[in-house]
Amino acid sequence: MTRAKIAFSNSTRIAAATAALGLLAACGASERPTSQLQVSQVNTIGVNAYLWRGALDTLSFAPLLSADSNGGVIVTDWYANPSNPNERVKVTVTILDQDLRADALRVAASRQVAQGGGWVDAPVQAATVQKLEDIILTKARDLRRQAVTG
Question: Rounded to two decimals, what is the model's pTM?
């Protein structure tokens, strides 16, 4: 390469680098790129919003006794399925963390059966509680997925 070509080549590179830096500077120093992804930690209500909404949606079959979004506790009133009026259940959901994780959710259920004109406590199968937890977690993950792709 001749000296003229080398000088032209170097000056062209410098000009291109300067132009690129100028374009980057024009983007604005105060503007930062924002992510379009919804984080798994949404906590404007005190607990993970996806878990909260998933729990409320899952328990919508039963009347709510209380719902504390800051403390993350949802308690249903007694619910009797119309097809089985001799049995009723009450569910408490506690959201323990601000992250969307399986261990951030605890479900407890009480069950009673009609006996002798009153209600008597009866055991709840562990699989029932586990199934409720799975449904809530699946719903929460679906809500997050919809927020990310929507």
Answer: 0.69
